[in-house]
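Pasting as-is:
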Amino acid sequence: MGLLPWYWAAMGKAYPSREQRAITRHQLNAYLTIYNRFTDRPIGYIGNISAQGLMLISEIPVMVGEAFEMRIKIPHEVSPTEVYIDFKAVSQWSKPDVDQRYFDSGFEIVEADQGIINLASSLREFFSFR
């Protein structure tokens, strides 16, 4: 199945088959980048995500206990108009990644709309092997 089925349904279009994905695997970094909602600067990349939280992979550690206003941008290959998924998350932990150039940080999502739930579900399906 393709990524972001809720977008296709909302647009009244047929949901693309696995062979007709809206994106290819080598384009995933565009979907996995997390931005600061206010400055539009990249914060890091999604390492793991669910409706309740995410793991961020970044070049610098984050302050634990701090709230972050985050944004995921849906690339133009999926949506002809600009679509953002904005949410607020609180950092729970931060530690060096196995690759010492990066840090892994866990976040609890505290404010979000249905978009983050749909994205987490779509990414889980995208990466499942059937």
